[in-house]
Inverse folding.
């Protein structure tokens, strides 16, 4: 049975959100990050790929700052959206794949 881990919402580091954290653009960036926190790896990539296509030139760099995802991941999502038939075999990671969570053990000396 796959483990459900609660993903934290990324805080945008763009200049607009730092200077004006309550304006409309900052609220849009917060909404994007809230949606991403509920998606799995593949759907996160594809969602950001769609946004990068909509934002046009420079969208990949901006979304990288907004979401904390690498530019390579965003470009991969754009490619998956532009050519959906090529990447059907690739999916999300198997259950239990990836790094294990780090747990601190406090031992009394």
């Amino acid at each position: 049975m796959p483990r459900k881990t609660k993903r934290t919402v990324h805080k945008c580091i763009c200049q607009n959100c730092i200077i004006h954290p309550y304006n409309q653009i900052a609220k849009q960036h917060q909404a994007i990050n809230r949606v991403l926190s509920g998606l799995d790896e593949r759907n996160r990539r594809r969602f950001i790929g769609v946004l990068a296509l909509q934002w046009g030139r420079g969208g990949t760099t901006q979304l990288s700052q907004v979401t904390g995802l690498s530019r390579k991941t965003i470009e991969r999502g754009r490619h998956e959206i532009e050519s959906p038939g090529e990447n059907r075999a690739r999916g999300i990671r198997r259950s239990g794949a990836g790094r294990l969570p780090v747990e601190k053990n406090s031992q009394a000396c």
